[in-house]
């Protein structure tokens, strides 16, 4: 079921989400939560969504990017559900900057620098351990969604607020290349 996405200013977006208890793995409750996240994400055409963005204070994120018009330059990322994710930066890979958006800040984009490559570990909905290395857009969307679980929105990661604005204006000015998107 498509749910309403909370927007910046709603204090629920600033709260730390709770770990999903092991007893909930494989449950209908968790299955429905993940289904709602996908339904909501697909309805708006975003790349990723975290449970707190639909008002559910649990450590669950979903993301996928295949030819996403919001991010025309981004390489594809397979559909992924991460429950109770954790990540650590690969320090040798350094940092990378890119324009980010967020469904909780519709119409806006900001330049955010993040670790370029990360190792992550999480559970899937059945409780199986998932682990891997993410880089490029994959690493970015993973960190962005995990930030939501700690009440962090991308403007809180920005170092230069002069690189923050409405996508429409940034695109019209040629600061951001590519197609117009919401
Ligand atoms: Ni977001």
Specify the helix fraction band: 10-25%
What is the beta-strand fraction?
A: 25-35%
Strand arrangement within the widest β-sheet reads 1-2-3-6-7
Number of domains: 1
Question: Which radius of gyration do the C-alpha atoms yield?
Answer: 16 Å
| Shape label | globular
Query: H/E order of the elements?
Result: HEEEEEEEHEH
CATH class, please?
A: Alpha Beta
Whole-number average pLDDT? 94
CATH topology: Peptide Deformylase
* Ions and ligands: nickel (II) ion
Major β-sheet annotation: 5 strands, antiparallel
Could you characterize the architecture of this molecule?
The strands form two sheets. The protein has a five-stranded antiparallel sheet with strand order 1-2-3-6-7, with helices on both faces. Strands 4-5-8 form a three-stranded antiparallel sheet. Helix content is 20%, strand content 29%. It is globular, with a radius of gyration of 16 Å. It has one domain (11-172): Alpha-Beta Complex (Peptide Deformylase), CATH 3.90.45.10. The model has no long low-confidence stretch (mean pLDDT 94). The chain contains three helices and eight strands; from the N terminus they run αβββββββαβα. Bound molecules: nickel (II) ion. Nickel (II) ion (NI) binds at residues 102-104, 144, 148.
């Amino acid at each position: 079921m498509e749910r309403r996405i909370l927007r910046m200013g709603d204090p629920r977006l600033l709260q730390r989400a709770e770990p999903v208890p092991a007893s909930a793995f494989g449950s209908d409750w968790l299955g429905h939560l993940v289904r709602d996240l996908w339904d909501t994400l697909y309805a708006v055409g975003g790349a990723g969504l975290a449970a707190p963005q639909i008002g559910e204070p649990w450590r669950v994120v979903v993301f996928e990017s295949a030819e996403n018009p919001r991010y025309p330059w981004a390489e594809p990322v397979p559909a992924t559900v991460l429950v109770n994710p954790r990540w650590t930066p690969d320090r040798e890979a350094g940092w990378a900057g890119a324009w980010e958006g967020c469904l909780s800040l519709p119409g806006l984009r900001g330049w955010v620098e993040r670790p370029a490559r990360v190792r992550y570990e999480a559970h899937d909905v059945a409780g199986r351990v998932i682990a891997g290395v993410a880089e490029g857009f994959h690493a970015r969307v993973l960190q962005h969604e995990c930030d939501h679980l700690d009440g962090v929105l991308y403007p809180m990661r920005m170092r230069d607020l002069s690189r923050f604005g409405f996508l429409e204006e940034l695109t019209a000015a040629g600061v951001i290349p590519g197609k117009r998107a919401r």
